Amino acid sequence: MTVTDRRPLLIIALVLALFAAACGGGDDDSGDDAGSASESASASASESESASASASEAADEEPADPASVDDTASSDHDTDDADEAEAPAGPIVVTHKFGETEVPRDPQRVLSLGFSDQDDLLALGVVPVGILDWFGDQPNAVWPWAQPLLGDAEPTVIPAVVEPNVELIASVDPDLIVAVSQGLTREQYDLLSELAPTVAQHADYADYRAPWQERTRLIGSIFDKADEAEALIRGVEDRFAEVRAAHPEFEGLSAAVAFAFNGQPGVYASSDVRAQILESIGFQTPAEYDELAGEAFFVNVSEERVDLLDTDVVVWIATDEVVMQDVLQSPIRDVMRAPGEGREIFTPTLVSGAFSFGSPLSIGYLLDELVPELALAVDGDPATAVPSAVAIGAVG
Question: How far is CA 134 from the centre of its chain?
Fold first, then answer.
């Protein structure tokens, strides 16, 4: 029975298992190693014996024209080289949280199932046939900084829900699923792997806490594009260096990347990509955030702990204007020092998206928008207007 024949059964199994997975987590068991060199070695030995026999027969004959022998030998050698060059390469083996995946070379139907994997894929020249839509309601689930690389393609949009939409994923007919910026459970990974080879989140980091550089490197390894991935990383890190050189005043200042979820304010710990980006241009994440976060990547902030927001600059992010208004109306701002001292920044949807994606494509857009506001917010003069704060009415 082929994979296509089994798909209806797989879809049913996936739906049931993913529903069960919602009630509990997966384990981190690694997958079994695959592959053997025995057939290759046997073939090589057979070729060697055949070549040896041919050489012996050729030595017993006395050619009339030595030059013709040289031409024949050269021709045979060229043919062997051509056959060797045309021989298809084997699959690429990629290590991730749940073990190893054999990835076919040059996959034609790549599904981007991570929250921000489409950016890395597009930056590496891979146009997905399906893309997970995290938030923002962008065309084809691709944000402005990546749209030019999508071209005229119209990938299937996969809604971001608690459990993957298995029927929709199956309908895309992927030959590879990339879910690096995800938090798949073992059960979800195993079942998605029945549809296509699947690469899950990074093996060396907790879910959602792999640095953006490591996510890019992992995705580059899937397509044998390590050099291209490193070039992307160097480009962003060079930009960080330019910002630090232009704004030495950022060095050592404390920064809070803050949010509000269902009216509850919080801040991101240093294990989150948003805090890591600010650290890359000189700011520091308060150590207490990491102590309180423990295994999480954020800390909820109560009115009793408003001191956690007493940093040199507070950058509020939100997925849309409704959430931003929740931030603006939060009672905690009434007891914060930053609002009265002009040290708040409010990032609109596109800037918040670039912050949250934290990809080689989005970071450049983010720095263009955010750095000028950071410079105004930390200049030490409460009278300096921060445009984003003025725009939403956070200051008079």
Answer: 13
Task: Count helices and strands (H / E) in the chain.
Answer: 15, 12
Consecutive H or E run containing 261? strand 255-261
CA distance linking residue 295 with residue 73, whole number of Å: 66
| CA torsion, ordered 343, 348, 351, 357, to nearest 10 deg | 110
**Cα 36 to chain center, whole Å?**
31
Distance CA 199, CA 176 (A): 8
Q: Is the pLDDT of residue 352 over 50?
A: yes
Half-sphere exposure of residue 323: CA atoms within 13 angstroms, side-chain side: 19
- The pTM for the full model equals 0.77
Q: Does residue 175 carry a pLDDT above 70?
A: yes
Residue 137 backbone zone (phi > 0: left; psi -120 to 50: alpha; other: beta):
left
**What gap in Å lies between CA 49 and CA 42, rounded to an integer?**
11
Statement: residue 1 has pLDDT above 50: no
| pLDDT at residue number 70 | 44
In 201-312, where does DSSP find H-type helix? Answer: 212-222, 226-246, 273-280, 287-293
| CA R_g for the chain | 27
Secondary structure of residue 243 in the 3-state scheme: helix
> How far is residue 95 from each of residues 202, 218, 230, measured CA to CA in Å?
8, 9, 18
Q: Which DSSP symbol is given to 318?
A: -
The answer to whether 221 touches 237, Cβ cutoff 8 Å, is no
Tokens of 120: 């890395």
**Mean pLDDT, to the nearest integer, of 165-193?**
95
